[in-house]
Every structure is written in structure tokens, then in C-alpha cells.
Amino acid sequence: MSSLREGALASWIGDEDGLEIGERCRVVSQDRTHSHVKWITGSRKGAFDLVANDDLVADREPARDLDAFTFETHSGHLVQVACREVLDRGGEQALWTALQREGHFQPVAERATAQVSELVSRLRSDPSWAEVQVNLGGDPRFERHALRQLLLAALETVDSYEATAEADGA
């Protein structure tokens, strides 16, 4: 488990107004209950604050290796966010925000956007969809709902497939 220390990077998991769960900061000084931090993301970027340690989750410690001359080297991880601690203490959204703030999954997000654009295009070219739109007088509100339902159905199909594959020992 990671621990707060001076110089550590950390993720916010508190509920203070003006801060979003997953905001990132650097611990400038720290005592038993509170830390002075400098925000490195979000609306307070560059500002210093005193916050309760319970509202922060420190990044995991970088792995340390010894080279051939027994000098300590840092073998950096791609993800410095303490994923388990952020998830357990702040929830899914806190972890997602912290990872996004660090720039993780950008290529995957771009691919997902392209796939959703393709889905929208296919929906709009579907003959039955055209008839629904005529009946709605072109009201765009239902389209967003229909897209959500299609995406949720696809996720459920993937989840069912993965559960079946696990049960079959694949």
C-alpha cells in the first residue's frame, strides 16, 4: 500500500466543493493528519492547500532495481496512480478521473469515439430508424436514448461472452 510522504504525487478522493474526485496534487509537506499540497490538475492547478490526509491517496511507490554496479535505479511504471487504493476509497469515477488526468487510455478513447461515430452513422442510415424519425417529427431526444441502449446491450453481450469463456476454461 502506498503512503503519503513529502514529494509524493496523490489523487483527491474527498468531497470538498470546487475539487473533482481524481484531481492530482503533489504533497509539499505532511504531518499525521494533514498535508500541504500543490494542485497539478483541475480548477486549482498551481494553488497550494492544506487538506486532510484521509482525502488523498498517494501514488504507488516506483519499483526500485539494482543495476550491475548495485546502484539503485528506477524502473518506472506506466501507471503511477495507486489504483486499488483510489478505487477502494474513492470509487470507479475517482479512479477513472485520476487515470484520465495522467493521460492513460487516450488511444482507446479515440478508438471508442470513432466506433460510436460509426454506430451513429449506421443507426441514421437504417430504414426503420428513418421511419421512427418521421413519426417523431425529427425530434432528436430519442436518438441519444437509443444509442445508449445499443451501447449497453453491446456491453452486456461482451460481459456474457466473457463469463461463458471463463466458465468454459478459455
Description:
The protein has two domains: about 10-100, no CATH class; about 105-165. The longest helix is centred in the C-terminal third of the chain and has 27 residues, at about 140-165. Helix 1 (about 85-90) packs across helix 2 (about 90-100). A five-stranded antiparallel sheet has the order 4-3-2-1-5, covered by helices on one side. The protein has a two-stranded antiparallel sheet with strand order 6-7. Helix content is about 45%, strand content about 20%. Strand 2 (about 25-30) and strand 3 (about 35-40) form a beta hairpin. With about 170 residues, it is of the alpha+beta class.
Concise synopsis of the structure shown:
This protein has five helices and seven strands. The chain is α+β, with helices and mostly antiparallel strands and 170 residues long.
Overall residue-averaged pLDDT value: 82
Helix percent reads 40-55%
Summed up, the helix count is: 5
Helix/strand-derived class?
alpha+beta
Low-confidence stretches: 62-67, 69-75
Compute the CA-based radius of gyration. 22 Å
Topology:
Layout: E1 9-12, E2 24-30, E3 34-39, E4 48-52, E5 56-58, E6 63-66, E7 72-75, H1 83-90, H2 92-101, H3 106-125, H4 127-135, H5 141-167
Antiparallel strand pairs: 1-2, 1-5, 2-3, 3-4, 6-7
Helix pairs in contact: 1-2
